[in-house]
Design a protein that fits this description.
Elements (H helix, E strand, L loop, with lengths): L2 E3 L13 E7 L1 H4 L5 E7 L4 E5 L5 E8 L2 E3 L2 E3 L3 E5 L4 E6 L4 E8 L17 E4 L6 E3 L5 E6 L1 H4 L5 E7 L8 E4 L2 E8 L1 E6 L2 E6 L3 E4 L5 E4 L6 E8 L4 E4 L7 E4 L16 E2 L7
Antiparallel strand pairs: 1-19, 2-3, 3-10, 4-9, 5-8, 5-10, 6-7, 6-9, 8-11, 12-13, 12-23, 13-14, 14-21, 15-22, 16-19, 16-21, 17-18, 17-20, 23-24
């Protein structure tokens, strides 16, 4: 069964000794060590030591605030990809900072070539990535992590936006597990036909072979990030569903020329992205 972690059930704790860690995904929660995910709250000007085990990779997404990670400015516009065994310090700026910290243990089991992942911290400004629109509905997508961006097949990620009334066809995945973390708005996850309302701060974890779909029945945009571990997987569409394909718009999230071009493709076709 899918796992839902309610943001309201995660205590809004103030940082102690400079930071507060709320574990969202752990082996106790999901029953395996596919991924761990923490929400870390850091007081203004405070430092948080970030260290991975030697066999781990991961990523950091700033939700609010900002700071410096390993001497690189880090804002909510950035995704930071953490190489094997990364160790560094995140120092918050002049406001309280919330971030998501993901770790993928034993990453070589998901990417035999993990040693070829760049060994330095890499950051991508996702707001400069091309916006893609769905061929059959009103959704849009921005890639957050791909082999070309992160340098590994151990994980991949994207940000999906559902305008009011938008929905997606039911499907399931084979070869990967994945989660959705709601950034803003409210939407309904249809899990094997049963509706579950999700709102900002909530998290949904899907295992393989679990049918799911989303619909936005609210009057505001519903936005979430979703990450797969490992990145490559097969998507199986339920009978009668349109295959999810994505079209280039020629712009980024601010209407500018994007940092790169991505052509028409079907979900799951990751080569070259």
């Amino acid at each position: 069964m899918p796992v839902i972690v309610s943001g309201k059930e995660i205590a809004a704790l103030e940082p102690e000794n400079g930071f507060q860690v709320s574990a969202l995904l752990t082996p106790d929660v999901i029953g395996n060590d596919q991924i761990s995910l923490d929400k870390v709250t850091i007081a203004p000007g405070a430092a948080y030591d970030l260290a991975l085990d030697p066999d781990m990779v991961g990523w950091v997404q700033v939700l609010s605030g900002g700071g410096v990670l390993a001497e690189q400015d880090t804002t909510p516009d950035m995704i930071s990809y953490l190489p094997l065994g990364f160790a560094g310090v995140f120092t918050a700026g002049d406001e309280k900072t919330d971030l998501l910290l993901a770790r993928v243990p034993d990453a070589a089991r998901f990417d035999p070539d993990i040693a070829e992942m760049p060994n330095e911290l890499r950051q991508v400004d996702w707001t400069r990535e091309p916006v893609l629109e769905s061929e059959h509905d009103a959704r849009s997508r921005i890639y957050m992590a791909t082999p070309a961006l992160a340098g590994t097949h151990a994980f991949k990620g994207e940000m999906i936006s559902y305008p009011p009334g938008a929905s997606a066809p039911e499907h399931h995945h084979v070869g990967a597990e994945h989660f959705q973390y709601v950034i803003s708005g409210r939407g309904t996850a249809l899990l094997d036909g049963t509706g579950h309302v999700l709102e900002a701060g909530d998290l949904l974890y899907n295992y393989e072979h679990e049918p799911h779909a989303f619909i936005n029945q609210s009057d505001e945009k519903f936005v979430f990030v979703e990450f797969f571990v490992p990145g490559p997987c097969e998507t199986i569409w339920s009978p009668g569903a349109n295959v999810c394909a994505w079209l280039p718009t020629g712009v980024d999230s601010a209407g500018r020329a994007p940092s790169r071009e991505i052509g028409y493709h079907v979900h799951g076709q990751d080569d070259g992205l």
